[in-house]
Design goal:
Elements (H helix, E strand, L loop, with lengths): L7 H11 L9 E2 H15 L2 H8 L3 E6 L2 E5 L3 H10 L1 H12 L4 E5 L4 H9 L5 E2 L25 H5 L17 H12 L8 E5 L5 H15 L5 E5 H13 L3 H9 L3 E5 L8 H16 L3 E6 L11 H8 L2 E5 L4 H14 L6 H10 L4 H18 L5 H8 L3 H4 L5 H12 L3 H4 L6 H18 L3 H7 L5 H17 L1 H12 L1
Parallel strand pairs: 3-4, 6-9, 6-10, 7-8, 8-9
Antiparallel strand pairs: 1-5, 2-3
Helix pairs in contact: 2-5, 8-9, 10-11, 14-15, 14-16, 19-21, 19-24, 21-23, 22-23, 23-24
Bound molecules: adenosine-5'-diphosphate and magnesium ion.
């Protein structure tokens, strides 16, 4: 087993903070909070811009939903006000988890003077805070920043989301293959590409990877990544300021348009109309369109039929819950990338605990490693669960695919061989369909995997089976009870 030797200075500091037990997190000082905020800024501000504008700013107070920042001179203050005010507000609101007003001030202003008088000697910050690793990557606001260094930043892309560090398994294989095909042949492989799946499963990572690859090949390609919310906000702003033409041009003259969390677009009728026209213009010009969503097009409510059919008109690929092998491979890579070395048994344990969200899995890695680092002790599994604040019993998978199939066969009095075999008599077809239905519903397997488990050729059979079972259950209480009985069993 490895031992961890923390830097003695850090250790002392941490012990001091841990004495302050009442709060959830150790109390930090403002400089540390500022560092967390600046690490966030660095994600989407170029090094040159960072050094020019942020390096010499000072955070002097965070209290009652206000963050006071001193700028070195009035010129910098104005610039920050114009270019980065919104970003800072967003970052502070996110990391402190409360709506935060940003107050920029120049040196020797009355605010600063007053603050000096009141200031706590060690500038303690006692509120909540999220570190960069804990906080979700936020959408980069394309429209409010016009000073970019790289084409990646200009496109709103996170340069760290690449195919090279995206790990492929059964649950994301199809989505990954489709994304690579699109990245290698934008506009011609699948158009649009529509990726859907639950939270934290890698949709955003994949679509950024497409953008990054296209830009790496040709930095002149015009790419835009935005959320459906940003799309709407900009549209509203354009209408308000009479800049419709610019708005349209910005979106309709792109080589690649990517809209994340597209499911929200259905809330806004006008945005749907605008998107419809944008879509048509781009598609007719052979330009690539990519969407990510938490559900498939047919399940987005209030979506107009014509947009729905556009969404379905190319490739629709899902990412389902990651299988254990994939989670295990991901956590291994992430720990290497972050320079965290944890023993294999702990990595395995984390991969077992977090079975439906890669972002949470990643977060757990950081939490556990910092705990070990600070505490200097290697925790066992029960302690890890405690650190992570979870009940391991409730996290365990309830059953395996084999158990489900066996239970269904028992209920319907057929053999596993028959359900996985070729016969198509009614007494076998129904349990076979129920198996597919339950594998999908209970284990959230991708369609391809369900097909494989039951020895079927392709996923359309599975889709059909699930629909049949759903239809039947809706009208047949006896069947419904039997299926529920199997789950209970
Ligand atoms: P989503 O958009 O589906 O909510 P994200 O793309 O934001 O999820 O992914 C959440 C986190 O998990 C990111 O840090 C991402 O890098 C990571 N992640 C998800 N899937 C994979 C994968 N297959 N390989 C490596 N990292 C992954
Ligand atoms: Mg996302």
């Amino acid at each position: 087993m490895q031992t961890f030797v923390p830097n003695p200075q850090i250790k002392e500091e941490i012990e001091e903070r841990l004495e302050n037990k009442g709060t959830k997190k150790p109390v930090i000082n403002l400089d540390e909070l500022w560092k967390i905020a600046m690490d966030r800024v660095k994600i989407d501000v170029s090094p040159t811009n960072f050094n020019s504008w942020f390096k010499d700013l000072k955070l002097i107070r965070v209290q009652n939903g206000e963050a006071v920042i001193v700028c070195e001179n009035p010129f910098v203050k104005d610039w920050i006000e114009k270019q980065y005010h919104k970003k800072l507000k967003k970052i502070f609101t996110e990391i402190t988890r409360r709506e935060t007003k940003i107050i920029l001030t120049a040196p020797n202003s009355s605010i600063e003077k007053k603050n000096k008088e009141e200031e706590h000697p060690d500038k303690r910050y006692e509120g909540n805070y999220l570190t960069v690793e804990e906080a979700p990557i936020f959408n980069i606001e394309y429209s409010h920043q016009n000073y970019y260094e790289s084409s990646q930043q200009k496109a709103g892309l996170n340069p760290n989301y690449l195919f090279e560090n995206f790990i492929v398994g059964d649950s994301n294989r199809v989505a990954h293959a489709a994304s690579e095909a699109v990245a290698d042949n934008p506009g011609n492989a699948y158009n649009p590409l529509f990726i859907y799946g639950g939270v934290g499963l890698g949709k955003t990572h994949l679509i950024h990877a497409i953008g990054n690859r296209i830009l790496n090949k040709d930095p002149n390609k015009k790419i835009l990544y935005c959320s459906s919310e940003t799309f709407l906000n900009e549209m509203v702003e354009a209408i308000r300021t009479d800049k419709n033409i610019e708005f349209r041009r910005k979106h309709r003259e792109l080589d690649v348009l990517m809209i994340d969390d597209i499911q929200f677009i259905s809330n806004w009728e006008k945005a749907q109309i605008e998107l419809f026209h944008t879509f048509n213009t781009l598609q007719q010009a052979n330009k690539q369109i990519i969407f990510a969503s938490d559900r498939p097009p047919e399940q987005i409510e209030k979506l107009t039929d014509r947009l729905r059919s556009r969404f379905q008109g190319g490739m629709v690929a899902d990412i389902s819950k990651p299988e254990y092998e994939l989670r295990s491979a991901i956590i291994k890579q992430k720990s290497q990338d972050k320079g965290i070395s944890l023993p294999q048994n702990i990595l395995d344990y984390l991969a077992k605990l977090y079975d439906d969200n890669i972002r949470e899995l990643e977060g757990s890695l950081i939490k556990v490693s910092s705990h070990i680092h600070f505490g200097h002790i290697m925790p066992d599994e029960a302690e890890i669960a405690k650190i992570l604040g979870i009940d391991p019993a409730s996290k365990q998978r309830r059953f395996t695919s084999k158990e489900i199939i066996r239970a269904v066969c028992k209920e319907f009095n057929v053999s596993v061989r028959d359900v996985r075999g070729k016969r198509r008599t009614a007494d076998i077809v129904l349990p076979r369909q129920v198996c597919m239905y339950l594998l999908r519903k209970e284990l959230d397997y991708p369609l391809e995997r369900v097909a494989k488990e039951l020895n079927r050729l392709d996923h359309t059979t599975v889709l059909h089976a699930i629909e049949r079972v759903e239809d039947k259950i809706a009208v047949d209480d006896r069947l419904k009870n039997r299926v529920e009985g199997v789950t209970k069993e």
